[in-house]
Write a structure and sequence with these properties.
The protein is about 15% helix and about 50% strand. The chain contains 7 helices and 27 strands.
């Protein structure tokens, strides 16, 4: 993934940049699997072999989504290497006394491997921005600034390698292949064991770094459900940084197409991310008389270069939150779009009641024949929903009829067997 390669592009010294894959499994205080390979086509891993102050280092880094807006980070810095890099084994045998040094100067150790699980999206983006914003990189990136960033932001949440090894097995046509196994320590007395680690990096030309952006997340086809537990939260949209051909940071245009309302939002941004409050989505749903949003989103540079892997789809389901949030009295009686639609076997019929009253909800077929009375009861002012099951129906088009004291609301729904 080339945005990770740009992290070291400002050294202006002897260097070879790489992109590729980084994978391992881990168990202990933390258990799981790490893979920089996303969607089988995109890798969020990179490396560099660089000379700096008469010494050479090999550094590699990878990041992977763990959950919605949660990421894992792996970083290794191998000092006292050679340029160009050659097959070699770096080993760890660090005492607890040595770990105290890390608090003051992590790079005082000739070998450093760090695993940071469970970074929230906002912090993960700060990490990515530090390495990918060329204006930051060109002004400040050095081993010293890297040290400061790590100590100030990552140390307390990091597992540090105390035992194990990293081996570069082979280098063929500059392709770097290796493996590693590490014991990671995190105060206080938490251990995680990294097993079966492997990496594969291929060299890239620094002149190729002015590429289209790559969408990072939320992953394609994500369904975000907003409910009573996360109504006050936020969701971030992320993509990789980019520069013009002359290395100048570029602006981005985020395009959001809400297919079920017909609205399109184009936003010009200088950062490679944006956060949306969940309440903003809910307010928009109420204004648009829907309970979910079918969003197609993409990012291109201000000059019009399209992303390398977009567009992506994002569905936001606000039905649950619209039901539980009755703090605001609706301004009118509204029958919102049922979701899902088409449906099988059930759909949620959501509506807003301005004045407390009796509401009758019925389902009719295309011939006007009554299929089912879903509800006939008194509802307080606020947002509500009822569920309708089509298990006994044949595939086809049906109509919701909602009777209230001020009139009748109707809506077409489709059942698919």
């Amino acid at each position: 993934m080339k945005y990770l390669i740009s992290l070291f592009s400002s050294f202006l010294l002897s260097q070879t940049l790489y992109q590729g894959s980084l994978e391992f499994s881990y168990n202990g205080s933390e258990t799981g699997a790490f893979s920089s390979n996303i969607e089988d086509t995109t890798n969020f891993a990179g490396a560099i072999n660089v000379t700096f102050n008469d010494s050479s280092s090999f550094m590699m880094m990878g990041i992977t989504p763990r959950d919605e807006n949660i990421f894992d980070l792996f970083l290794t810095i191998l000092q006292d290497s050679t340029f160009p890099i050659q097959p070699r084994i770096w080993s760890w045998d660090i005492s607890f006394a040595d770990l105290a040094i890390i608090a003051e100067d992590p790079l005082n150790l000739s070998t450093l491997s760090v695993f940071v699980p469970g970074l929230d999206s906002s912090f993960a983006n700060q990490w990515l921005t530090f390495f990918t914003d060329s204006s930051i990189v060109s002004d400040s990136l050095s081993l010293n600034s890297l040290t400061s960033f790590f100590v100030e932001n990552l140390l307390d949440d990091s597992y540090i390698a105390t035992e194990g090894y990293i081996e570069i097995d082979s280098i063929d046509n500059q392709v770097v292949v290796g493996n590693f196994n590490l014991t990671m320590y995190k105060p206080i007395f938490s251990f995680t064991y990294i097993n079966n680690g492997n990496f594969n990096f291929v060299p890239v030309n620094a002149e190729d770094l002015s590429n289209p952006v790559t969408l990072i997340g939320p992953a394609d086809e994500t369904v975000l459900t907003i409910d009573e537990d996360n109504t006050g939260g936020q969701t971030g949209i992320f993509w990789t940084s980019s520069t013009d051909l002359d290395g100048t940071p570029t602006d981005y245009i985020l395009e959001l197409i809400v297919e079920n309302t017909g609205d399109t939002l184009d936003t010009v941004l200088t950062n490679s991310y944006i956060f949306f409050q969940h309440q903003e989505f809910l307010d928009y749903m109420l204004d648009s008389e829907v309970t979910h949003l079918d969003i197609v989103w993409d990012v291109h540079t201000f000059e019009g270069v399209e992303s390398s892997n977009g567009p992506w789809n994002l569905t936001i389901d606000g039905g649950w939150a619209l039901d539980v949030d009755n703090s605001t009295i609706p301004e009118a009686f509204v029958l919102h779009n049922s979701y899902p639609n088409p449906f099988n076997p059930t759909t949620k019929i959501t509506f807003s009641v301005k004045e407390s009253q009796n509401v009758k909800i019925s389902i009719f077929d295309v011939n006007g024949k009554l299929v089912q009375n879903v509800s006939n009861q008194y509802f307080e002012s606020g947002n509500h929903y009822v569920k309708f099951s089509g298990k006994k129906l044949s595939s086809g088009i049906y109509f919701i009829m909602l009777n209230h004291k001020n009139g009748i609301e109707t809506q077409k729904i489709t059942f698919l067997e």
